[in-house]
Amino acid sequence: MSGRSKVIIIGGGFGGLCAARTLGSAPVDIILIDRRNYHLFQPLLYQVATGSLSPGEIAAPLRGVLGRQKNTRVLLGDVEDIDPALKRVLLADGASFEYDSLIVASGSTSFYYGNDQWQKWAPGLKSLEEATTIRHKILYAFEVAERLSDPALRRAWLTFVIVGAGPTGVELAGAIGEIARETLKNDFRSIHPEESRIILLDGAPRLLMPFPEDLARKAERSLAKLGVQVKTKAMVKSVDQASVTLELGDHEERLDTRTVIWAGGVTVAALGRTLAKRTGAETDRGGRIKVGPDLTIAEFPDIYVIGDLALSLDAEGKPLAGVAQVAMQQGTYAAKAIVRKVQGKPPRKAFEYLDKGNLAVIGRAAAVANVFGIHLWGLPAWLVWVFIHLMYIVEFQSRLVVFIKWAIQDLTSSRGARLITGTANTDFDFNHEIACENCTTELKADPLGAEVH
Q1: Which pLDDT belongs to residue 348?
Q2: Is the same domain home to 208 and 321?
Q3: Is 385 found in the same domain as 250?
Q4: Confidence (pLDDT) at 285
Q5: Is 110 helix (H, G, I), strand (E, B) or coil?
Q6: In the chain, which stretches have pLDDT less than 70?
Q7: Least crowded by CB within 10 Å, which of 25, 264, 308, 380?
Q8: Same domain for 258 and 273?
Q9: Helices (H), 373-416
Q10: Is there a single domain that holds both residue 220 and residue 209?
């Protein structure tokens, strides 16, 4: 065993997990290191954020997934540094591990374009913690509005702004529209949830820029049926507790809102910047590391970079998108390249990405899909979306549970995970509100500065 090649995989996402599974029967010893003990099915995070699914239904314990691979060791740890000269990985707790081959798939985080202070009021959607925070914010907004008597304040609490009109933003906007118009329509007595404002923003000329234009138009029409207003060519200038300020051409617009969700961009995790510095690798504006045709860093043939962290080009010289199918194909490629290297075989041919298409769901029986160049929308696209997402969920038990929950939701419009847990930055003091409703004083401020009556 000691003489076998050592492979370290950093990150248990789509790319890292595919690499580990591909190496399962190879004559190597694998260590997979992740800050979490689970693999997260990120494409369904928005369903946790909107109460359709619970966190455990889209996450699978890495030890359980890889438990049968006798050559694989799973470690919980935060990789802080990489020494490419000594071929060592260093963890935040001081531990270190040697490698012969390294696969870095550490993923990405939300990018606020230099305005990280916005994160306090506009959480992104890259982790389970962020998903439950967003769920808190959405459901809490309806609860606060139910207790308010001032129409302007109530309207602000019932205004939901999503920044970023890519697939994540579109899916979030559609889900919030369904919550307001279907799930909660009979649950309140003082408010009408279906009168909520849902605003989807993007600086691009249209939504769903990776999709063909005809599918983007159909998606926008489907969103309109759910009451979603799309604002394109809109640049966010500021975000605070009570509003979002936009730049629309030659004028600015202020939106009074207590719920802002960020789906407007990603950047590499801190480890990516450290690796780029250590290797002198070229990076793009978002910090992605430029890799060669074999997915390795120049002058470091034993370091493979895949997934969101990699700046990899397609056959036309365009950067590949940071989506699950790219990461999975790259993880499989890197693993097979390592096997060939261990077996003393010639290197594999350059990585070639097979684009299977793009999918985005808007609501029940409404989706758009570009599958191998075939444009689908409505029910056919939705069925494709359902099948593909169920197929790629790691654990069979989770597939079954998710399928049953989706079936119940589509039949009843009910969302079983509508729980307000933890805290969010928009917390509102109900006791203070009740006191103000029963007195004749002028408008007062809640503990965080929002006015209540």
Answers
A1: 81
A2: no
A3: yes
A4: 87
A5: strand
A6: 1-2, 423-453
A7: 25
A8: no
A9: 378-392, 396-412
A10: yes
- Per the CB < 8 A criterion, the answer to whether 124 and 263 are in contact is yes
Q: Which domain holds residue 298?
A: 5-35+77-110+266-342
Predicted model pTM: 0.90
Residue 200 sits at the vertex; the CA angle it makes with 196 and 355, to the nearest 5 degrees, is: 135
Residue from 57, 171, 220, 433 carrying the catalytic annotation: 171
CB 255 within 8 A of CB 246: yes
Q: Are residues 141 and 251 in the same domain?
A: yes
Question: Measuring CA to CA, how many Å separate 209 from each of 44, 47, 114, 170, 340?
Answer: 20, 22, 23, 11, 38
Domain harbouring 285, CATH code? 3.50.50.60
Would residue 315 count as lying in a domain? yes
State yes or no: is 195 an active-site residue.
no
Instruction: Provide the domain count of the chain.
Output: 2
| Domain harbouring 160, CATH code | 3.50.50.100
Residues 170 and 251 occupy one common structural domain? yes
The CA distance from 60 to 393, in Å, is: 9
- Own/partner pairs, 329-332, CB within 8 angstroms, 24+ separation: 329/18, 329/353, 329/354, 330/15, 330/295, 330/306, 331/14, 331/15, 331/16, 331/17, 331/18, 331/19, 331/22, 331/103, 331/105, 331/306, 331/307, 332/18, 332/19, 332/22
Give the model's pLDDT for residue 427: 53
Q: For residue 436, what pLDDT is reported?
A: 54
pLDDT, position 97: 98
Residues 393, 14: Cα–Cα separation, whole Å? 10
Using the Cα atoms of residue 224, residue 236, residue 359 and residue 40 in order, give the sign of their dihedral.
negative
According to the model, what pLDDT value does residue 432 have?
52
The residue among 229, 232, 228, 235 whose CA lies nearest residue 251 is 235
